[in-house]
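Input record, target 12 of the design panel.
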């Protein structure tokens, strides 16, 4: 009886304030979005969505992108969430092959840049993009009198010994993007030789981006590695979060020809979700301008919506690679697992 009265009161209250109410078994509903650990969104943006639609969003952070996708695939018969955000163009074929995503052609796709829409069956919809590239600590290189890297082959030179930290491509989407960059630059016959030379030059490998950037990169932590695989949009993050105003970013991204990989992140509804209608509303929200304009200063990548405006710090300090490495998604799908296994044998064993 008490539960029935509580539900009646909640329905009455939300009706009075003009907010629709979603109920599952008589309880105010929530939709669960599985994400990678780097996902972020402003509280006020989430609150506005929840007030408008009458249900909560629960964010289930599940590790780096590769590890999170593995969890979603392994739990496909009993999904951990209703949607998955964070699968990118390096891992998307794995998710599509596993058949874990529902088809949904959002009306908001008309505002999404066409070149980012890679799934013609609308199971994965693009949310953001960024260029994965080398970042370096400008102060460290100035103090040492060493020229910062400008191309991938610089990293195997004696002057750069023990300076670089990268992510494991088996568990990290930036790590896989960087591996694909080396394949695009050196070719399938020579990329492993490049990695042997990196290993001989004492490259450090971490499981994910956060461990590399916040744990080992000298410009962002107490680590001693002044070169890290990150994003071309990482320098504006350093300016934005600085304790005092900065006119110049303390880090720089290497965006010269054939040094970056264009990474696109997608969202999809997980099969087996019992909240399909709510999930579709959440996808529309992720593609619309309110969330899209929140992306740059929350996750420091670029919005996929062509109508979204960029913040001033992005316009001033962020770079977009003019000639990134591009590998056909079908080629990635056909070779990714072998490339990763060969990399693992070469670098970690």
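The sequence produced for target 12 reads:
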């Amino acid at each position: 009886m008490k539960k029935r009265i509580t539900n009646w009161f909640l329905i009455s209250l939300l009706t009075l304030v003009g907010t629709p109410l979603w109920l599952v078994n008589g309880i105010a509903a929530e939709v669960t979005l599985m994400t990678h650990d780097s996902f972020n969104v402003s509280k006020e943006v989430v609150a506005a969505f929840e007030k408008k639609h009458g249900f909560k969003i629960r964010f289930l952070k599940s590790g780096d992108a590769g590890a999170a996708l593995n969890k979603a695939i392994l739990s496909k018969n009993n999904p951990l969430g209703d949607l998955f955000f964070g699968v990118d163009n390096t891992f998307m074929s794995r998710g599509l092959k596993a058949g874990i995503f529902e088809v949904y052609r959002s009306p908001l796709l008309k505002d999404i840049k066409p070149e980012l829409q890679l799934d013609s069956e609308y199971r994965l919809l693009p949310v953001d993009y960024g260029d994965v590239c080398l970042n370096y600590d400008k102060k460290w290189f100035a103090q040492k009198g060493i020229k910062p890297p400008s191309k991938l082959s610089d990293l195997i030179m004696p002057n750069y010994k023990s300076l670089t930290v990268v992510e494991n491509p088996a568990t990290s989407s930036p790590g896989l993007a960087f591996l694909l960059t080396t394949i695009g630059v050196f070719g399938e016959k020579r990329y492993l030789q490049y990695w042997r030379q990196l290993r001989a030059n004492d490259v450090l490998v971490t499981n994910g981006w956060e461990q590399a950037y916040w744990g080992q990169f000298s410009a962002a932590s107490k680590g001693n590695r002044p070169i890290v695989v990150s994003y071309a949009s990482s320098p504006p993050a350093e300016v934005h979060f600085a304790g005092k105003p900065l006119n110049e970013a303390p880090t720089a991204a290497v965006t010269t020809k054939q040094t970056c990989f264009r990474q696109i992140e997608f969202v999809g509804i997980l099969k087996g979700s019992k909240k399909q209608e709510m999930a579709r509303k959440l996808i529309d929200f992720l593609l619309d301008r309110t969330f899209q304009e929140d992306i740059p200063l929350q996750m420091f990548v670029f919005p996929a919506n062509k109508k979204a405006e960029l913040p001033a710090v992005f316009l001033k300090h962020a770079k977009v690679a003019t000639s990134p490495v591009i590998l056909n998604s079908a080629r990635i799908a056909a070779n990714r697992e072998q490339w990763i296994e060969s990399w693992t044998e070469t670098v970690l064993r």
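The radius of gyration is 22 Å.
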